[in-house]
Amino acid sequence: MSALDEALIAAHAAGDAGALIALYTHAADQAGDVDAACFYLTHAYVFALEAGAPEAVGLQARLADHGREPRAPVCD
Q: Among 70, 63, 21, which residue's Cα sits nearest to residue 44?
């Protein structure tokens, strides 16, 4: 098992939303293809939404860039 896998398991066990967001984002950045990256980005995004974390905005945009999430409306 990789260090990233171990860190994800530990973060899940601890219920550490901040770590989960960061770790899943890191996993997406290291993924070998778009599908894998979007899988991890989706997880990071869900945890960010649940936590009300500001990272949700950037994660949503990254998913939208790959056609996996609609673009957020722009507010004036």
A: 21
